[in-house]
Structures are given as C-alpha cells and as structure tokens.
Amino acid sequence: xxxxxxxxxxxxxxxxxxxxxxxxxxxxxxxxxxxxxxxxxxxxxxxxxxxxxxxxxxxxxxxxxxxxxxxxxxxxxxxxxxxxxxxxxxxxxxxxxxxxxxxxxxxxxxxxxxxxxxxxxxxxxxxxxxxxxxxxxxxxxxxxxxxxxxxxxxxxxxxxxxxxxxxx
Length: 168
Prior knowledge:
With 168 residues, this protein is mainly beta.
C-alpha cells in the first residue's frame, strides 16, 4: 500500500511540477540590476524579444517586448521623471514618439496583462539615438552613473533609449 501511494505521489509530482518548471524556463527572461552607493539595488526583468528587420515599436502606444511587460523592482523610493515611486514592484512599457521614446511605469505587475492606463503611475521621456548595427533582440541595461542615479538603457533594432532613476 505504501509503495502504491509513493508511486502515485511520484507520478503526480512528475505531471504537475515538471511542466511548470519548463513553462518558467520557456519565458527566457533576462535581468538587469544597478546598486546605488548605499547598497540598495534596483532591477529590471524583461523578455529579450527578437528583433525582426523592418519592425518598429508602435508609435504613441504602450509596447512590451514579446507582449510581456518589463518588471521594475525597487527596495527604495526613486524618482522616475518627476514622479516619486515608493518601494515596490512596477511594470514598464515603451512608447515610440515622433522624436523620442517614453518609458511608461504602471502599478499593475501582472506581466501578461494588457496595458491599463488607469494603473499608470509615471511617464519618463527617454533620450534616443541610433546605435550602429541593429541589435538581434530587445535588451535593457542599468548603469550606476552617480551616487544616487541609475540609468536604464533600452536597445531595440538600431535605436537606443535611456532615462535615469534617482534615489530619493
């Protein structure tokens, strides 16, 4: 009887746990992090969506790489543009304008949820520029550029965009 229960338990674990592990691996997420001088670290988790020649980020519409919102995690209060973000987790989207990009920050942290303007907490205009050869996939990097400042750089295709998060 114990052997039979053990076998049933093992089979249940195999059918429940193993597919869940593979589904998490298939998301193929990347993480970028930056540590302020006081040791507090902010991080961004994102989907490195593949760039297809000729594709552009939609104009004046929130976009997420691979239809999966980027996630920002902050253990300290930070300024995003002129908005104060309390400690916590946020989702982020990018919107392409005529001459620049905008980083949109939302309090909805469900990665696969569609963008909801009612959940928006901040918008940051991003400086943009052309970067040599097109990147093969979307990427995000965080860099510590001053004691209380971490800069996010996003690259997609032949364009790079950046904005700063300042620790409060």
